[in-house]
Amino acid sequence: MSFSTWLGLLAICCLGAMSPGPSLAMVVRHTLGGGRGKGIVCAWAHSIGIGIYALVTLLGLAVVLKKAPLVFNGIAILGALYLAWMGVQALRSKGGMQAKLAAGEATDTLTAARDGIAISLFNPKIMLFFLALFSQFVMVADSMTAKALIVFTPLVVDGLWYTLIALLLSHSSVLPKLRKKAGLIDKLSGVVLILLAIRVVYTL
Known about the structure:
Transmembrane segments: 44-65, 70-88, 117-141, 148-170, 182-202
Organism: Shewanella vaxholmensis
Structural class: mainly alpha
Number of strands: 0
Shape: globular
Membrane topology: Multi-pass membrane protein
Keywords: Cell membrane, Membrane, Signal, Transmembrane, Transmembrane helix
Helix content: over 70%
Order of helices and strands: HHHHHHHHHH
InterPro entries: LeuE-type
């Protein structure tokens, strides 16, 4: 895998992590309800679930590509359509991240970890995202190093992003500023997701 290809993977993983959804709501709830530490625990437990999804998706797509290239292309096209749909939804969003920044409830470390990994493992949209995302990278994953990068990049990016969220929300003065930027994050994510969908189809 070339460095430029990895940078593309990194950028997409960043946008995927930043997209508002139930994962953000969960980390926010545990941060505001249990403090910085609980938010960070929730963040990295969530990232472990992301890593599991990434590994399973990568291995599955590699098998499909080897045994049924036409099926692989079909999965890639469906994935591109899903990415485009997510992009349109993000562009049309009126609440977005702002709607997720609600007050948290009291929590403990075990609950924060449990909720973090559960919200990632039991969210089917994450599997769909990886099917769409990895369809363009699995073909260049021709070594163990490349495969490791494809799995660990989304895991680490996810953990770091939600850790940043937990750190920011630990300071109450930051929350209003984050809310003001919610619309911009939605729009940026929407545009990039649509461009990514076009790229997936173009590279088939």
